Amino acid sequence: MAKIVDIINKAETTHSLTKEEIVDLLRCDEYDQQLFLAADRVRSQYVGDQVHLRGLIEFSNICQQNCFYCGLRKENTKVKRYKLTPDTIIDLADKAKSYNYKTVVLQSGESQSYTVADMQYIIRSIKALGLAITLSLGEKSRDEYQFYKEAGADRYLLRIETTNSRIYKELHPGMSFENRLRCLQDLKDLGYELGTGCLVGLPNQTMECLADDILFFKSLDADMIGLGPFIPNADTPLAQERGGTFNTSIKVMAITRLLLPDANIPATTAMETLDKNGRIIALQSGANVVMPNVTEGEYRKMYMLYPGKICVNDTPKHCVSCITGKIQGIGRHISTEFGFRQSKKLTNNLQEYAEKERNM
Ligand code: SAM
Ligand code: SF4
Ligand code: FES
């Protein structure tokens, strides 16, 4: 089917596809290798061979939401809840620095268990270490996002999860799709580097839905796009679902790279959960970021979104040497920069980027 090859060529040269073309690509598996190679070439051309490592600190599993797919949902009483103290979080960030990570990602369930003042203290203290900070705390008010930006946070990850508002509604009791969009817009307006993404393989999600998700990332001009398979968790309402496949997740990621050539795209943990070489395959199919876990001890096991999560019995020190070896093993190298998005669209954006790197 020459048509699929033509679509891949079009995506590689114009970075633009129609919804129908994306659906055709997702439906046909015969040319997957060509798709992955094209995404790898675009990754190399736009963001280079360096891989940015972001140290992930899962600082609390307390959550007030009830997302149907997630093991941390409030109604899952099997989870032992924890929250690290502000000074423990800062200490973990300091350790991340000692492993040469340039960014820490502070991630938690959505809750009010830390005050705004707590979070400002954490952010300011980590900034003083000379690290870039990505937050992933869920939905907050615009004011709260603003306070954290002013305290020094650089980036924010908030996946849209699915752009199909009907599926979104079904899976997120008590939440609204409109508020999710409001949060993303506020974060963008406030000057955060904006990360979003989706789950692949949600119940009732079609290839058309996934095509809409990819086009949404492009219309938002997201700086980071994190996506991975939905992996069913036995302690959630979606326990009996089939979940997403590794191959479809990698395809969605590769098409995303073709359409957003200069975005930062992580090889996600969920991908490695489904395939023991998942992150490396992702890095060879369009990804340029890895987020190794720097959470310590028993907390890794307690932040159990889905079963089979990797690295739960490993130490941060082991993870850094493990992932570094794997990355070097495929001829790529670890970035020594902060890895802000290098927008290739405007010269002044590049200047802004250089300025940002200099000021860190
Ligand atoms: N609470 C914040 C939020 O929801 O944005 C941040 C933490 S949340 C655990 C991070 C991501 O985990 C979510 O955006 C979701 O896509 C992913 N996740 C949750 N449950 C999952 C599952 N069963 N399989 C794969 N990913 C999952
Ligand atoms: Fe809470 Fe985030 Fe899990 Fe939803 S995805 S239940 S907000 S931790
Ligand atoms: Fe944690 Fe390989 S990255 S063990």
From TrEMBL:
SMART domains: BATS, Elp3. SUPFAM superfamilies: Radical SAM enzymes. InterPro entries: Aldolase_TIM, BATS_dom, Elp3/MiaA/NifB-like_rSAM, FeFe-hyd_HydE_rSAM, HydE/PylB-like, rSAM, rSAM_sf. Its cofactor is [2Fe-2S] cluster; [4Fe-4S] cluster. Residues 49-268 form the Radical SAM core domain. Keywords: 4Fe-4S, Iron, Iron-sulfur, Metal-binding, S-adenosyl-L-methionine. It comes from the Bacteria. It holds the Pfam family Radical_SAM. This is [FeFe] hydrogenase H-cluster radical SAM maturase HydE. It comes from Pelosinus baikalensis.
